[in-house]
Automatic annotation (TrEMBL):
Superkingdom classification of source: Bacteria
Record: residues binding Zn(2+): 218, 290-291
Source organism phylogeny: Bacteria, Bacillati, Bacillota, Clostridia, Lachnospirales
Organism field: Diplocloster modestus
Signal peptide: none
Keywords (A to Z) from UniProt: Metal-binding, Methyltransferase, Transferase, Zinc
Residues in Hcy-binding domain copies: 1-305
Named cofactor requirement(s): Zn(2+)
InterPro entries hit by this protein: HCY_dom, HCY_dom_sf
Protein known as: Homocysteine S-methyltransferase family protein
Presence of the UniProt keyword NADP in the record: no
Length: 312
Protein backbone atom coordinates (compact mmCIF):
# COMPACT_ATOMS: atom_id res chain seq x y z
CA UNK A 1 0.00 0.00 0.00
CA UNK A 2 1.38 3.42 -0.92
CA UNK A 3 1.17 6.45 1.35
CA UNK A 4 -1.65 8.17 -0.48
CA UNK A 5 -3.87 5.09 -0.37
CA UNK A 6 -3.09 4.50 3.30
CA UNK A 7 -4.00 8.09 4.08
CA UNK A 8 -7.33 7.74 2.29
CA UNK A 9 -8.15 4.45 4.04
CA UNK A 10 -7.04 5.30 7.60
CA UNK A 11 -9.00 7.18 10.24
CA UNK A 12 -5.85 7.77 12.32
CA UNK A 13 -2.16 7.84 11.38
CA UNK A 14 0.52 8.18 14.05
CA UNK A 15 3.38 10.56 13.36
CA UNK A 16 6.70 10.49 15.20
CA UNK A 17 7.37 12.42 18.41
CA UNK A 18 10.17 14.88 19.16
CA UNK A 19 13.68 14.28 17.86
CA UNK A 20 15.72 17.46 18.34
CA UNK A 21 14.95 18.14 21.98
CA UNK A 22 15.55 14.51 22.91
CA UNK A 23 18.82 14.32 20.99
CA UNK A 24 20.07 17.36 22.90
CA UNK A 25 18.77 16.58 26.35
CA UNK A 26 18.92 12.78 26.53
CA UNK A 27 21.97 12.13 24.38
CA UNK A 28 23.91 15.39 24.66
CA UNK A 29 24.25 15.69 20.89
CA UNK A 30 24.91 19.08 19.24
CA UNK A 31 22.35 20.02 16.60
CA UNK A 32 23.31 23.65 15.95
CA UNK A 33 25.46 23.28 12.84
CA UNK A 34 24.51 24.50 9.34
CA UNK A 35 22.34 21.44 8.63
CA UNK A 36 21.25 20.92 12.28
CA UNK A 37 20.41 17.21 12.79
CA UNK A 38 20.92 16.07 9.21
CA UNK A 39 24.57 15.05 9.53
CA UNK A 40 24.18 13.10 12.77
CA UNK A 41 23.96 9.97 10.62
CA UNK A 42 27.70 10.30 9.98
CA UNK A 43 28.54 9.95 13.68
CA UNK A 44 28.08 6.63 15.42
CA UNK A 45 26.41 8.12 18.52
CA UNK A 46 24.10 10.31 16.43
CA UNK A 47 23.02 7.54 14.08
CA UNK A 48 22.47 5.18 17.00
CA UNK A 49 20.36 7.74 18.87
CA UNK A 50 18.20 8.46 15.84
CA UNK A 51 17.64 4.77 15.26
CA UNK A 52 16.63 4.26 18.91
CA UNK A 53 14.13 7.14 18.85
CA UNK A 54 12.48 6.07 15.60
CA UNK A 55 12.39 2.43 16.68
CA UNK A 56 10.72 3.45 19.94
CA UNK A 57 8.07 5.48 18.11
CA UNK A 58 7.53 2.73 15.54
CA UNK A 59 7.02 0.16 18.29
CA UNK A 60 4.19 2.29 19.69
CA UNK A 61 2.49 2.45 16.31
CA UNK A 62 2.85 -1.32 16.01
CA UNK A 63 1.44 -1.86 19.50
CA UNK A 64 -1.70 0.11 18.64
CA UNK A 65 -1.92 -1.07 15.01
CA UNK A 66 -1.58 2.40 13.52
CA UNK A 67 0.20 3.44 10.32
CA UNK A 68 3.40 5.29 11.20
CA UNK A 69 4.91 8.41 9.63
CA UNK A 70 8.56 9.38 10.18
CA UNK A 71 10.46 12.23 8.55
CA UNK A 72 14.14 12.77 7.89
CA UNK A 73 15.77 15.30 10.27
CA UNK A 74 16.52 17.64 7.39
CA UNK A 75 14.39 20.76 7.87
CA UNK A 76 17.50 22.94 7.66
CA UNK A 77 19.26 20.84 4.98
CA UNK A 78 18.35 22.93 1.94
CA UNK A 79 20.82 23.23 -0.94
CA UNK A 80 22.48 26.37 0.44
CA UNK A 81 23.03 24.93 3.91
CA UNK A 82 24.10 21.52 2.65
CA UNK A 83 26.77 23.00 0.40
CA UNK A 84 27.96 25.49 3.01
CA UNK A 85 28.52 22.55 5.37
CA UNK A 86 30.63 20.78 2.75
CA UNK A 87 28.07 18.11 1.86
CA UNK A 88 26.21 17.19 -1.30
CA UNK A 89 22.92 15.53 -2.20
CA UNK A 90 24.17 12.23 -0.76
CA UNK A 91 23.39 13.69 2.68
CA UNK A 92 19.67 13.52 1.90
CA UNK A 93 19.99 10.09 0.29
CA UNK A 94 21.68 8.74 3.42
CA UNK A 95 19.01 10.17 5.71
CA UNK A 96 16.27 8.54 3.64
CA UNK A 97 18.24 5.28 3.59
CA UNK A 98 18.40 5.09 7.39
CA UNK A 99 14.65 5.44 7.71
CA UNK A 100 14.14 2.94 4.89
CA UNK A 101 16.22 0.43 6.89
CA UNK A 102 13.86 0.85 9.84
CA UNK A 103 10.85 0.73 7.51
CA UNK A 104 11.86 -2.75 6.33
CA UNK A 105 11.55 -4.04 9.91
CA UNK A 106 8.09 -2.54 10.50
CA UNK A 107 5.10 -4.69 11.38
CA UNK A 108 2.69 -1.88 10.58
CA UNK A 109 2.53 0.35 7.49
CA UNK A 110 5.40 2.85 7.80
CA UNK A 111 6.10 5.75 5.46
CA UNK A 112 9.26 7.83 5.10
CA UNK A 113 8.89 11.58 4.59
CA UNK A 114 11.47 14.00 3.28
CA UNK A 115 11.31 16.93 5.69
CA UNK A 116 11.82 20.44 4.32
CA UNK A 117 11.59 23.87 5.95
CA UNK A 118 11.56 27.58 5.25
CA UNK A 119 14.78 29.42 4.41
CA UNK A 120 14.49 31.88 7.29
CA UNK A 121 12.98 31.85 10.78
CA UNK A 122 10.01 29.51 11.15
CA UNK A 123 8.64 31.39 14.18
CA UNK A 124 8.91 34.99 12.95
CA UNK A 125 8.92 34.71 9.16
CA UNK A 126 12.14 36.75 8.97
CA UNK A 127 14.07 36.29 5.70
CA UNK A 128 11.17 34.49 4.04
CA UNK A 129 11.07 34.06 0.27
CA UNK A 130 8.58 35.12 -2.38
CA UNK A 131 6.71 32.28 -4.06
CA UNK A 132 8.91 32.48 -7.17
CA UNK A 133 12.10 32.52 -5.10
CA UNK A 134 10.85 29.63 -2.97
CA UNK A 135 9.88 27.54 -6.00
CA UNK A 136 13.43 27.82 -7.30
CA UNK A 137 15.16 27.58 -3.90
CA UNK A 138 13.35 24.48 -2.63
CA UNK A 139 13.29 22.53 -5.92
CA UNK A 140 16.72 20.98 -5.35
CA UNK A 141 15.76 19.46 -2.00
CA UNK A 142 12.34 18.28 -3.19
CA UNK A 143 13.80 16.63 -6.30
CA UNK A 144 16.62 15.03 -4.32
CA UNK A 145 14.16 13.44 -1.91
CA UNK A 146 12.11 12.12 -4.83
CA UNK A 147 15.21 10.53 -6.36
CA UNK A 148 16.25 9.14 -2.96
CA UNK A 149 12.98 7.21 -2.64
CA UNK A 150 11.04 9.17 -0.01
CA UNK A 151 7.39 8.10 0.21
CA UNK A 152 6.15 11.67 0.69
CA UNK A 153 7.38 15.22 1.26
CA UNK A 154 6.65 17.26 4.37
CA UNK A 155 6.99 21.03 4.78
CA UNK A 156 7.39 21.73 8.51
CA UNK A 157 6.38 24.90 10.39
CA UNK A 158 5.90 27.23 7.42
CA UNK A 159 5.18 30.76 8.75
CA UNK A 160 4.55 32.76 5.56
CA UNK A 161 2.10 32.00 2.77
CA UNK A 162 4.27 33.10 -0.15
CA UNK A 163 7.17 30.81 0.72
CA UNK A 164 4.79 27.95 1.56
CA UNK A 165 3.18 28.45 -1.85
CA UNK A 166 6.52 28.32 -3.66
CA UNK A 167 7.62 25.26 -1.71
CA UNK A 168 4.32 23.57 -2.54
CA UNK A 169 4.97 24.27 -6.23
CA UNK A 170 8.41 22.64 -5.96
CA UNK A 171 6.92 19.64 -4.16
CA UNK A 172 4.08 19.36 -6.65
CA UNK A 173 6.57 19.18 -9.51
CA UNK A 174 8.05 15.93 -8.11
CA UNK A 175 4.78 13.99 -8.38
CA UNK A 176 5.14 12.73 -4.80
CA UNK A 177 2.33 13.16 -2.28
CA UNK A 178 3.15 16.02 0.07
CA UNK A 179 1.88 17.82 3.16
CA UNK A 180 2.19 21.50 4.09
CA UNK A 181 2.38 22.18 7.83
CA UNK A 182 1.94 25.80 8.92
CA UNK A 183 3.25 27.81 11.84
CA UNK A 184 0.00 29.14 13.31
CA UNK A 185 -1.16 31.26 16.21
CA UNK A 186 -4.30 31.01 18.31
CA UNK A 187 -5.73 33.94 16.34
CA UNK A 188 -6.25 31.46 13.50
CA UNK A 189 -3.56 32.90 11.25
CA UNK A 190 -0.08 32.15 10.00
CA UNK A 191 2.73 34.35 11.29
CA UNK A 192 2.25 36.70 8.31
CA UNK A 193 -1.42 37.25 9.20
CA UNK A 194 -2.96 34.97 6.54
CA UNK A 195 -5.93 32.97 7.78
CA UNK A 196 -5.65 29.19 7.60
CA UNK A 197 -8.58 29.07 5.19
CA UNK A 198 -7.05 31.66 2.87
CA UNK A 199 -3.65 29.94 2.92
CA UNK A 200 -5.16 26.60 1.91
CA UNK A 201 -7.22 28.14 -0.88
CA UNK A 202 -4.25 30.08 -2.25
CA UNK A 203 -1.89 27.11 -2.35
CA UNK A 204 -4.49 24.75 -3.80
CA UNK A 205 -5.05 27.23 -6.66
CA UNK A 206 -1.37 27.64 -7.52
CA UNK A 207 -0.11 24.06 -7.80
CA UNK A 208 -0.59 21.37 -10.43
CA UNK A 209 -0.98 18.67 -7.77
CA UNK A 210 -2.58 19.76 -4.50
CA UNK A 211 -1.10 18.79 -1.13
CA UNK A 212 -2.50 15.59 0.29
CA UNK A 213 -3.58 17.71 3.25
CA UNK A 214 -2.52 20.58 5.49
CA UNK A 215 -1.65 20.53 9.19
CA UNK A 216 0.43 22.24 11.84
CA UNK A 217 3.28 21.26 14.12
CA UNK A 218 5.09 22.72 17.12
CA UNK A 219 1.88 23.93 18.77
CA UNK A 220 -0.34 22.65 21.59
CA UNK A 221 -3.76 21.18 20.63
CA UNK A 222 -5.56 23.76 22.77
CA UNK A 223 -3.99 26.55 20.70
CA UNK A 224 -4.97 24.76 17.50
CA UNK A 225 -8.53 24.39 18.76
CA UNK A 226 -8.74 28.15 19.29
CA UNK A 227 -7.21 28.81 15.87
CA UNK A 228 -9.66 26.58 14.03
CA UNK A 229 -12.66 27.90 15.99
CA UNK A 230 -12.53 31.40 14.48
CA UNK A 231 -15.43 32.01 12.11
CA UNK A 232 -13.14 32.68 9.14
CA UNK A 233 -11.64 29.19 9.55
CA UNK A 234 -14.90 27.35 10.15
CA UNK A 235 -15.26 26.46 6.48
CA UNK A 236 -15.81 23.30 4.48
CA UNK A 237 -12.41 23.97 2.95
CA UNK A 238 -10.60 23.86 6.30
CA UNK A 239 -12.71 20.97 7.56
CA UNK A 240 -11.83 18.82 4.56
CA UNK A 241 -8.21 19.88 3.99
CA UNK A 242 -6.66 20.68 7.41
CA UNK A 243 -6.17 17.23 8.88
CA UNK A 244 -3.18 16.93 11.19
CA UNK A 245 -1.21 18.03 14.24
CA UNK A 246 2.22 17.31 15.65
CA UNK A 247 1.68 18.71 19.12
CA UNK A 248 3.92 20.46 21.62
CA UNK A 249 3.56 19.24 25.19
CA UNK A 250 3.31 22.85 26.35
CA UNK A 251 0.41 25.28 25.77
CA UNK A 252 2.81 28.26 25.73
CA UNK A 253 3.20 30.47 22.64
CA UNK A 254 6.09 30.29 20.16
CA UNK A 255 7.63 33.40 21.68
CA UNK A 256 7.57 31.87 25.16
CA UNK A 257 8.99 28.53 24.01
CA UNK A 258 11.58 29.58 21.44
CA UNK A 259 15.05 29.28 22.96
CA UNK A 260 13.73 28.13 26.33
CA UNK A 261 16.38 26.48 28.47
CA UNK A 262 13.84 24.26 30.21
CA UNK A 263 11.12 22.13 28.75
CA UNK A 264 7.68 23.29 29.85
CA UNK A 265 5.37 20.30 29.57
CA UNK A 266 1.89 19.20 30.44
CA UNK A 267 1.61 15.56 31.47
CA UNK A 268 1.08 12.80 28.86
CA UNK A 269 -2.52 12.06 29.85
CA UNK A 270 -3.57 15.72 29.62
CA UNK A 271 -1.91 16.14 26.25
CA UNK A 272 -3.49 12.95 24.94
CA UNK A 273 -6.94 14.07 26.06
CA UNK A 274 -6.44 17.43 24.34
CA UNK A 275 -5.33 15.61 21.20
CA UNK A 276 -8.45 13.45 21.29
CA UNK A 277 -10.75 16.45 21.68
CA UNK A 278 -9.18 18.41 18.82
CA UNK A 279 -9.20 15.32 16.60
CA UNK A 280 -12.88 14.70 17.27
CA UNK A 281 -13.89 18.35 16.96
CA UNK A 282 -12.04 19.05 13.71
CA UNK A 283 -11.78 15.62 12.07
CA UNK A 284 -7.97 15.40 12.26
CA UNK A 285 -6.31 12.21 11.04
CA UNK A 286 -2.53 12.65 11.42
CA UNK A 287 -1.49 12.97 15.07
CA UNK A 288 2.00 13.04 16.53
CA UNK A 289 4.34 14.79 18.92
CA UNK A 290 6.69 17.76 18.69
CA UNK A 291 8.67 19.71 21.32
CA UNK A 292 8.55 18.28 24.83
CA UNK A 293 7.17 14.89 23.80
CA UNK A 294 8.79 11.47 24.03
CA UNK A 295 7.68 7.84 23.93
CA UNK A 296 5.52 8.25 27.03
CA UNK A 297 3.53 11.02 25.35
CA UNK A 298 3.24 9.23 22.02
CA UNK A 299 2.10 6.01 23.68
CA UNK A 300 -0.58 7.84 25.67
CA UNK A 301 -1.73 9.62 22.50
CA UNK A 302 -1.94 6.34 20.57
CA UNK A 303 -3.71 4.63 23.45
CA UNK A 304 -6.26 7.41 23.89
CA UNK A 305 -6.99 7.76 20.17
CA UNK A 306 -7.45 4.03 19.57
CA UNK A 307 -9.51 3.52 22.75
CA UNK A 308 -11.79 6.44 21.89
CA UNK A 309 -12.28 5.14 18.36
CA UNK A 310 -13.53 1.82 19.68
CA UNK A 311 -16.06 3.48 21.97
CA UNK A 312 -17.41 6.04 19.49
Amino acid sequence: MDFEQCFKDSQTLLMEGALGERLKREYGLPIDGPVAMADLIYHHSGKSALRKLWTEYLSIAEEYHLPFLATTPTRRANQSQVHSAGYHSILLYDNVALLKEIQRTANTPMFVGGLMGCKGDAYTGKDSLTSAEAHNFHAWQANTFAKAGADFLFAGIMPVLEEAKGMAMAMSDTGLPYIISFTIRQDGRLIDGTTIDSAIRSIDRHVNHRPLCYMTNCVHPDILSLALSHDFNRTVNVRSRFLGLQANASPLSYEELDGSQDLKCSDPISLAQSMYHVKRKFNLRILGGCCGTDGNYLREIAKTLTSSTKTM
